[in-house]
Amino acid sequence: MRPNPHLSVVSSSPDSAVEREPATLARPWWKDLLWVLALGGALAAMVGWLASERRAVLSLEPDARAAVFDDAWAGFQRLCSTPMHTGLVPRCREQARFLLLFPECQGACQEQARLHGRALR
Questions:
Q1: Which helix (H) or strand (E) holds 64?
Q2: Which of 9, 30, 48, 80 is the most exposed place for a label (fewest CB within 10 A)?
Q3: SS (H, E, C) 10-34
Q4: How many CA atoms lie within 13 A of 25 on its CB side?
Q5: Angstrom distance (rounded) from CA 99 to CA 95
Q6: What would the DSSP string read from start to end of 88-115?
Q7: What whole-number distance in Å separates Cα of residue 99 and Cα of residue 112?
Q8: d(Cα 15, Cα 76) in Å, to the nearest integer?
Q9: Residue 12: pLDDT band by 50, 70, 90 thresholds?
Q10: pLDDT of residue 120
């Protein structure tokens, strides 16, 4: 013989013995803390990545860095000093940003790189 399953019926009357907790819209504080920590970590990673390019340029030997700068500056002047095709705008912007990483970029280099960096945005 099979046992009958016990079925419990919950009364829907207002005087039932089970009271429900009121629903709240507030989230636990630790969830907000997790979001803040994740956002802070992402921001720190982005800043570290952006600074790593500058550190790489500065870690080159002075002679090697000067040679790379001279090559980049000559290419920038050839490509970006004349009125350019609109397809070259992103490349000139990238080159200008790269030149500004070098401590050798002084005077005319800074002026041209900043001009192209701002004017092309």
A1: helix 62-80
A2: 9
A3: CCCCCCCCCCCCCCCCCCCHHHHHH
A4: 0
A5: 6
A6: GHHHHHHHHHHHTTSTT--THHHHHHHH
A7: 10
A8: 82
A9: low
A10: 40
